Amino acid sequence: MGAQEDDPGSLKSSRSSKLNVGSGILPVVEIESLVEKAKFYTSLCLGTTAILAVFGFLFLVPFVIEPAITTILSDFTPIPVACVVTGHVYAEGLRNCSWSSCREGCTSAALRCHQIKVNYTKASYEEVIAKPLERHWDVADTKFFVNTEGCGYPPRVNCSEFAKKFGYRNMGKIFPCYYSRTNPETVVARYSWDDNLKHLVLALTVPVVLFGVSLGVLCFWYCPPMSKTCSSPGRNLLEKYDRKEDILEEDGFEGEEEEY
Question: In this predicted model, what pLDDT tens digit does every residue of 197-228 receive, in sequence order?
């Protein structure tokens, strides 16, 4: 008999739940909860992006930004001139590798090195090829480098292939090269003003933009907008959520009421 009777409290609870569902309160709460979760994970991603952007910028300074600025200051000739290899030495040991035409890796000392020296003329490579008998070398026995840094990483920089291309049996062959107009003793095999400028702009703008956008969105979400400042009194992120002590007190109070 008792099992068949309906509990007034349960009937009231079921009516209340039906009312909430019918009035659209529960869906609104669920939507707000999803929005809060999405905002939390988005904030986490933005914060991670900002941190990685800082570390990425610090990493790009010695590997991209500084060499690009050095290249601009060196003022290499945009038109390739004619070069010819006059000497090629392969050395091993730290003492014997005081300088290297090509080094795989820009942070460690070279234990094996190719030292190549060239003669070059300030006339363009095309002019020298067109008139091979009229040849005059403006600078003799100067150091020759694979690029403006004299180093790099595979597969772009392969010192063995570089040595095979310009040294050994290819010594004496005329090839295009680029010399520095501010330091005529510096000659490189690869140079491109457009690529150098592109790498410099990307290295400066991409990390800064990522950091600025991430930080701006986070400040917009968690700092009071416009008239308020982050230090002004207001509802901050910690005040949006109930404290653990308050939740325990409320649960204890409700439990006492039910026992009563």
Answer: 999 999 999 999 999 999 999 888 888 654 45
